[in-house]
User: Fold these one by one.
Assistant:
Number 1:
Amino acid sequence: MKTHWVNITKGDKKSFFVFYDAIYRSLFQYGMVIGKDREIVKESIHILFYELWEKHERLPQEIKDPKFYVFVWLKRIIYRQLKSQQSSLESILNEPFEESVEDQKIKVEEIIEKEQLLHAALAKLTKNSATT
């Protein structure tokens, strides 16, 4: 695994894919413990490997355990994804709810109709009360 890591830092695509295949399942299982959301974990792993390849020239070659290094990296990405998802949800929930013009018109018409029915009922009630 360490040999593949060093080769990745040098731009070796074959080592990159071997490393990916060797570690994906473990990353997924670890990610599920942290993220609990299958789609977020899968997306986070894809982000991890995208970033890994984009930054391969700047990665440290001499690390003791590449697997541990990548696991910590994944954990940070998952937390970032969860925080982003939570802030997106909060912004949606904090936005004022606006009804469409059509919905507003329908509600106004319903109120007018109920008011007319109420007036008609009161008129009948008054007529009946006067005759008794």
Number 2:
Amino acid sequence: MDGKSLIVILIMVSASASASASAEVYKCADGKYQADPCDDQSEPLDLSNVGSVVAPSRGYPENLTNETIDARQQDSAVNPRDKKAEIAQYLRKQKIEREIRNLEKERKKAFKDRDDKIEQLRTTGKRANNNLAGATWQQSLAQEMTAVMQQGSTEVESIDRQISALRSELKQL
């Protein structure tokens, strides 16, 4: 789990600290953080001193009674399993978005590689002699250019399908 994920988990956990039920975070021996105990001796981290930048401030009007405030806090109490699922969903969305960005970079690279190969073949074709051997060579280069174009198109279509599938999954989350 990277540092950003840990920060997100800590912020979300601290946001629910004011509610009657809060999620717990455990630090395992391998240095990873998780919501479930790592082993039988695992104890949850004390996150009481972690401030929240996510939770909205509770600017209650002064005329509210303690009972009204308690009722509002109970209504906003979050089940730890729900919070865990919310964190997992957030992390999955982040992973999908990262995969989409990487695939888009691969797509641009595939276009660039294809264009570079075609340009190299065109440059090579300029050296052909104006005779039968040169004409045969140019025809061979043209066929190779067609193959490079088809290969590039196939690669880009495959990447586009992967991106489309990831975007569909992202919409469903």
